[in-house]
Amino acid sequence: MQHKPIHIIIVDDHPMVIEGLKTLLSDDERVRIINQFMNGTDALVFLEKNSADIILLDVNLPDINGVEMVPKILNIRANIGVIGLSTYSEPSIINQMIRNGVKGYLLKNVTGDELINAITQVHQGNFYFGSEVQKILADSVTQESSDLPKLTRREKHVLTLIADGKTTNSIAEELFISPLTVETHRRNLMQKLEVPNAASLIKVAVEKHLI
Amino acid sequence: MQHKPIHIIIVDDHPMVIEGLKTLLSDDERVRIINQFMNGTDALVFLEKNSADIILLDVNLPDINGVEMVPKILNIRANIGVIGLSTYSEPSIINQMIRNGVKGYLLKNVTGDELINAITQVHQGNFYFGSEVQKILADSVTQESSDLPKLTRREKHVLTLIADGKTTNSIAEELFISPLTVETHRRNLMQKLEVPNAASLIKVAVEKHLI
DNA sequence: ATCAATATACAGGAAAACCAGTAGGGAATA
DNA sequence: TATTCCCTACTGGTTTTCCTGTATATTGAT
Q1: Are A65 and A39 in contact (CB under 8 A)?
Q2: pLDDT tens digit string along B55-82?
Q3: CA(B177)–C1'(C10) in Å?
Q4: Residue A142's pLDDT is what?
Q5: Among residues B103, B99, B119, which one has the least CA distance to residue B10?
Q6: Under 8 Å CB-to-CB from B35, ≥6 apart: which residues?
Q7: Chain A residues 5-34 with a CB less than 8 Å from chain B
Q8: What percent of chain A has pLDDT over 90?
Q9: What homologous superfamily does CATH list for B6-143?
Q10: How far, CA to CA in Å, does A75 sit from each of A5, A49, A54, A80, A140?
Q11: Which ranges carry the HTH luxR-type domain (chains A, B) (predicted)?
């Protein structure tokens, strides 16, 4: 079905992992590992001159953060499919990786079949995330949205206006209410979200996806 | 290969779109549309009593925002695959949808083949995003990370402390520098990010992934 | 060695935010 | 009907931020 093998680069600072991946992929003729690197810089230098189809990218590299690696890779060669790899998985890390453009994400306890599956899927332009990864992502969503204090409509509205950098007075004008009322709303918001000022108010609001 | 058809629910307030989807899916025996709704509330009520495999969910519903629909659906039935649908696509919307747990996202100019493909992929537990959608997401990343003003280490540090709700004085104590210096840093930050106060400073900082 | 960027620091004053407590009217609800 | 929640509004005071402008020692780069 497929004539040319998929060209793969491995970036991981653990020799053991590299060997493991090699073993898992060695039997399959659809893929070929064309190079491997123990750090991010070397990989980027290589990519300036050469290309590949898929990069298996460890998240914890000695020199460059895996999260930061992804845009760097895609800046050099936008059509490479980057698949993130890590031993355990922080939801926020995975989210950042996805936002930065990884097409797949796997834990290192991945089976050979799943690995091949991920590689072929990503090579075809699809996304692939291991089932554990999906579970982690799903959990993180429900967890975040769990203990969010209930804000009233008015409070949400005021909140977004504060986030836009509006002052109490201009908010009051915009909503045709007294500045004193706006202050009350702001105070209630800070109390509900348990923060001491508007800056951190916005921070937790963004974190909890309230705005 | 597959005996039971995949059960599908359509949620969209445009009759035309519903008919279009029906036509695209009518020939295929692998899928079966079991119900359709013109608004979010009706769909949620239905899901309380019945289930489905896949939901094709329009983002612009009359009653409930599509983005908010996703967690509601998954709270009722976690194993439903939600595929987002929209005519045109705001990157931020798609990002929110993904974070909230959609497994796929398509534009409404989707072909029958791609639609079937997305449905089967998602039903198998994979993700599926149309190529245009992927392009939009990729563009949004490079765009966001493009014009970010360069912050110095010290400024970044001060920025995170501001985000934590610390006052100028406490930051000064923590960094063993004068409060006046901290103020200068804050001022420079606001100038660089072109915002009028600390609240919106934090907002754009989060948006641009600076903290 | 020189120039640019960074981190540091200050003055003086205006504006806004923050704190604590109170309170009335309206809508929803029990 | 009573109660609770929401939105509204106020007093009076303290703290912090924000503005404008200046300035110096240190570091990094050319």
Answers
A1: no
A2: 999 998 888 888 888 988 988 898 999 9
A3: 13
A4: 63
A5: B119
A6: B9, B10, B46, B50, B52
A7: none
A8: 57
A9: Response regulator (3.40.50.2300)
A10: 24, 13, 15, 10, 29
A11: 144-209
Domain boundary assignment for chain B: 6-143, 153-207
Which of B141, B144, B185 best probes binding to A when mutated, by most A CB atoms within 10 angstroms?
B141
Crossing angle (nearest 10°) for helices B198-207 and B179-192: 60
Residues B138, B134: Cα–Cα separation, whole Å: 6
**Is-contact B174 A174, C-beta < 8 A?**
no
Question: How far apart, in whole angstroms, are the C-alpha atoms of residue A97 and residue A102?
Answer: 6
* Residue linked to tokens 């769990």: A146
Interval A67-79: pLDDT, tens: 888 988 988 898 8
Locus of tokens 């020939």 = B27
CA B39/CA B36 separation, integer angstroms: 9
Residue of B nearest to A124 (CA): B131
| Chain B residues within 8 A of A134 when measuring between CB atoms | 125
CATH number, domain A153-207? 1.10.10.10
Residue nearest to nucleotide C5 (CA to C1'): B152
DSSP E strand boundaries for B93-155: 104-107, 128-129
DSSP string, B146-182: TSPPPPPHHHHHHHHHHHTT--HHHHHHHHTS-HHHH
Write the CA distances from B31 to A155, B25, B44, B78, integer angstroms.
44, 7, 21, 20
